[in-house]
């Protein structure tokens, strides 16, 4: 998808991915390092509005629930849109591995009426949106997927949402883009924490707990970067903090030297990275090589596979020290997580990212809905809309009326040491 | 005498005719006309199954875009269902526009753009032409230009030279490039943009102007007539008679006459639902295609009339909401094919409506209470 140097990201991926044990990740998940936050806490306080989705929204009243709309193919497909080439290949592979594992687990018990379920995987890494649109169309119209799971790419999530809204296909997105689920488009469900929610918890820690004044916000000049940038600035504003300094990187040609130059010119007290994972890896690597020890906060997308980071054993440590931090969901569902993390590690040799865990859950939720609803997109949608307290490996999942997962999230440490280990040859 | 008698006779005739006209007018006033006669085209009578995404009337012809191809009706009869086997670029047809000068039919599909001319299809895709994206939501003819709304911005095709222009966030004030619909006015062209509000393009001066939700909040409407009600705009319709554009969103309806905005929600109007798939306006009529019925708002009388089938009885119901908020319900023996409405077009006083379960032809008839 971009012209980022492949060798750098693959190097980092291989370095760290196999380092960290699943037990450490579990510990991180189980012991929150900061006060958990929910989507309810992220709502901006405004004057009483004339109308709101919460009070004036309405349920889907469209067609498709009748048996005449049932998918009749002998094999049912669950679509997965993932980057399988280029700079985000590591994350794409992680999503596919997790989804395959989930399908195997979820269909161990025979499906009703002899239903057979498979994954239909579409490669979203391409030269242009034109390619992604064609892949989405192929999955929806040719392969007749019963539901489509999209990666953390917010743009592709929106395009899928628009197609899903016209054709009537449930979309389960791993994107954090808040705007995908801020209105009652009935066909989309978001598993991860929104940009707004992530920004709120980071800002709370940065400005309220640490009392920092000087934060550097580094974001990509693309849809996801813009969304995160706006969310972070709004979060700072809502807490009465000074606006963070900004540095926007062109994701096709990121000028890493400018990051260092900017930091040397005006050293920040903390850095927030709202970038693609491979760009985050390069920024972190540059910081380490330059001997810069500044606390770094990463958005969930920045901390994906490909960032060279994995969850460390610093569970329970309040992020008030130097280190690298990101956002994950709450820590219930111990048995499910333990099983998933250890088997994922065994199969792939690396720890699962938060998005990989969400991809696992998305497949499990879809199969569960299929069991209850049969091979029908609208009925599957209805069952997804009713998900409450699902014990997922990415956290407990409950969808609100707009399709947001209202799980609690908290900050966790990403590295074992107080120095970064992203480019080392071996674990410290 | 004869002349005087003839004049007297003429006066009698004149009086009689005048009284008749007055009586007819009064009767019409007492018995307003509604669309009480509906003819449906569904699977039951050989129409493709499922949604009719778009309807375009061209004289006695009606083009209907479905998930299973493009349907041509002539004089109310299905003549042909065009599919990809006939050369259509995609099976899911989202929009149709007819070039009145050439007779060419332009078709926007999920699979690219098609031109139907002289019995042949010519296709334009992301790879084979200047088309920005194969997800085509809207097409509209403006003189020699064809405007195309795609998920990666707006295209303008010069049909004389074959040259393409692309407008997106790099050269126009698109907050997002996800164009969803087009409406052509005499001076401006209006675009509905998912996540980007409404954009207008001034034809004489070649400049773009965005209209977005001023409260900046996706989940709420801060003030009633604040400006555009929401940034996710599903369609736009320019009304040349009232010099107003109407924008439908999935959270209500907006209008702008160049000076004032007016917003309409289910709770403050006769709208049956805030989830509106499309809007079309002419004269004093504003038609909203909602997920719970087809709604006509008469801006002169401030009256709303909603047509929909009663899902329990299968019979039709017409719900009238008067300016004072009072509601009146009347039954009709025939009704729309489904209450989930996607699009419509006018054929004289008749309307053709795309629903989730086929095409409906509505005929207005005086109603005796």
What does the model show?
The complex is a heterodimer of chains A (428) and B (369). By secondary structure, chain A is an alpha/beta fold. Chain A has two domains: 176 residues, Rossmann fold (3-Layer(aba) Sandwich); 209 residues, Response regulator (Rossmann fold), CATH 3.40.50.2300. The longest helix of chain A is centred in the C-terminal third of the chain and has 20 residues. Chain A is globular. The relative contact order of chain B is 0.12. Chain B is built from one helix and 31 strands. By secondary structure, chain B is mainly β. In chain B, a hairpin with a 2-residue loop joins strand 23 and strand 24. Chains A and B meet through strand 1, helix 3, helix 5 and helix 6 of A and strand 18 of B. Strand 1 of chain A pairs antiparallel with strand 18 of chain B, so a sheet runs across the interface.
Strand content of chain B: over 45%
The CATH superfamily of chain B is known as YVTN repeat-like/Quinoprotein amine dehydrogenase
Task: Give the integer mean of the pLDDT values of chain B.
Answer: 92
Query: How would you describe the shape of chain A?
Result: globular
Largest sheet of chain B: 6 strands, antiparallel
Rg of Cα set of chain B: 23 Å
Give the class-level CATH name of chain B.
Mainly Beta
CATH superfamily of the largest domain in chain A: Response regulator
**CATH architectural group of chain B:** 7 Propeller
Tally of DSSP helical segments of chain B: 1
Instruction: Report the count of strand segments of chain B.
Output: 31
Largest interface: A-B, 42 and 52 residues
* CATH class category label of the largest domain in chain A: Alpha Beta
Poorly predicted regions of chain B: none
Content-based structural category of chain B: mainly beta
Query: Taking strands numbered 1, 2, ... along the chain, how are they ordered across the largest sheet of chain A?
Result: 8-7-9-10-11-14
Question: How do the SSEs of chain A run, as a string of H and E?
Answer: HHEHEHEHEHEEHEHEHEHEEHHHEEE
Alpha-carbon distance between the two ends of chain A: 33 Å
Radius of gyration of chain A: 21 Å
Oligomer: heterodimer
The span between the termini of chain B is 49 Å
């Amino acid at each position: 998808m971009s012209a980022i140097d492949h060798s750098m990201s693959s190097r980092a991926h291989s370095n760290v991915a196999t380092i960290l044990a699943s037990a450490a990740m579990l510990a991180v998940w189980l012991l929150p390092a900061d006060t958990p936050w929910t989507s309810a806490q992220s709502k901006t306080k405004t004057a009483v509005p004339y109308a709101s989705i919460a009070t004036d929204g309405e349920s889907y009243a469209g067609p498709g629930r009748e048996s005449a709309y049932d998918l009749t193919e002998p094999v049912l497909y669950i679509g997965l849109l993932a980057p399988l080439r280029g700079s985000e290949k590591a994350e794409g592979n992680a999503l596919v591995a997790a989804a395959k594992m989930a399908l195997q687990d979820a269909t161990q018990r025979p499906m009703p009426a002899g239903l057979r379920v498979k994954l239909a995987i579409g490669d979203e890494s391409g030269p242009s949106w034109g390619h992604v649109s064609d892949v989405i169309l192929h999955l929806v119209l040719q392969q007749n997927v019963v539901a489509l799971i999209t990666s953390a790419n917010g743009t592709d999530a929106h395009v899928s949402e628009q197609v899903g809204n016209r054709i009537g296909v449930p979309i389960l997105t791993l994107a954090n883009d808040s705007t995908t689920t801020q209105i009652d488009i009935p066909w989309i469900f978001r598993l991860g924490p929104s940009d707004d929610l992530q920004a709120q918890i980071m800002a709370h820690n940065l400005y309220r707990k640490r009392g920092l004044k000087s934060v550097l916000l580094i974001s990509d000049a693309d849809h996801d970067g813009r969304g995160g940038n706006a969310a972070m600035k709004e979060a700072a504003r809502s807490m009465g903090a000074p606006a963070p300094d900004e540095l926007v990187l062109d994701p096709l040609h990121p000028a890493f030297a400018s990051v260092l130059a900017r930091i040397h010119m005006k050293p920040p007290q903390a850095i927030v990275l709202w970038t693609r994972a491979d760009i985050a890896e390069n920024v972190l690597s540059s910081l380490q090589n330059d001997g810069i020890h500044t606390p770094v906060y990463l958005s969930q997308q920045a901390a994906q596979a490909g960032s060279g980071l994995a969850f460390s054993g610093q569970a329970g440590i309040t992020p008030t020290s130097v280190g690298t931090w990101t956002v994950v969901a709450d820590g219930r569902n111990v048995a499910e997580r333990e099983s998933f993390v250890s088997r994922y590690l065994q199969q792939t040799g690396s720890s699962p990212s938060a998005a990989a865990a969400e991809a696992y859950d998305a497949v499990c939720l879809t199969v569960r809905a299929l069991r209850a609803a049969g091979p029908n997109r609208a009925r599957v949608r209805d069952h997804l809309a009713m998900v409450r307290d699902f014990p997922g490996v990415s956290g407990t999942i409950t969808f609100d009326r707009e399709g947001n997962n209202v799980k609690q999230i908290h900050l966790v440490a990403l590295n074992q040491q107080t120095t970064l280990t992203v480019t080392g040859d071996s674990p410290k | 005498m004869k002349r005087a008698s003839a004049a007297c006779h003429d006066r009698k005739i004149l009086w009689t005719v005048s009284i008749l006209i007055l009586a007819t007018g009064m009767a019409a006033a007492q018995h307003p006309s509604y669309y009480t006669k509906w003819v449906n085209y569904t699977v039951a009578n050989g129409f493709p199954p499922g949604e009719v995404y778009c309807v375009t009337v061209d004289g006695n012809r009606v083009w209907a875009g479905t998930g299973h191809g493009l349907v041509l009706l002539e004089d109310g009869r299905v003549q042909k269902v065009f599919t990809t086997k006939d050369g259509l670029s995609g099976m899911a047809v989202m929009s149709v526009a007819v070039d009145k000068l050439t007779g060419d039919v332009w078709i926007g599909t999920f699979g690219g753009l098609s031109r139907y001319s002289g019995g042949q299809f010519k296709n334009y895709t992301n790879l084979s032409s200047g088309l920005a994206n194969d997800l085509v939501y809207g097409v509209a003819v403006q003189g020699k230009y064809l405007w195309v709304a795609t998920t990666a911005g707006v295209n303008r095709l010069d049909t004389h030279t074959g040259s393409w222009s692309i407008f997106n966030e790099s050269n126009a004030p698109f907050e997002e490039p996800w164009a969803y619909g087009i409406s052509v006015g005499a001076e401006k062209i209006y675009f509905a943009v998912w996540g980007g509000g409404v954009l207008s393009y001034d034809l004489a001066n070649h400049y773009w102007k965005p209209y977005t939700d001023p409260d900046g909040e996706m989940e709420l409407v801060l003030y009633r007539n604040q400006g555009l009600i929401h940034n996710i705009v599903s369609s736009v319709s320019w009304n040349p008679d009232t010099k107003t554009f109407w924008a439908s969103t999935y959270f209500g309806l907006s209008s702008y006459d160049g000076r004032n905005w007016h917003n309409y929600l289910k709770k403050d109007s006769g709208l049956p639902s805030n989830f509106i798939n499309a809007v079309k306006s002419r004269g004093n009529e504003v038609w909203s295609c909602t997920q719970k019925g087809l709604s006509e708002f008469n801006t002169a009388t401030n009256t709303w009339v909603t047509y929909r089938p009663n899902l329990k009885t299968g019979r039709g119901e017409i719900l009238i909401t008067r300016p004072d908020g009072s509601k009146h319900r009347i039954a009709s023996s025939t009704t729309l094919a489904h209450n989930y409405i996607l699009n419509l077009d006018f054929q004289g006083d008749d309307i053709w409506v795309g629903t989730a379960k086929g095409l409906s032809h509505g005929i207005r008839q005086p109603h005796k209470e």
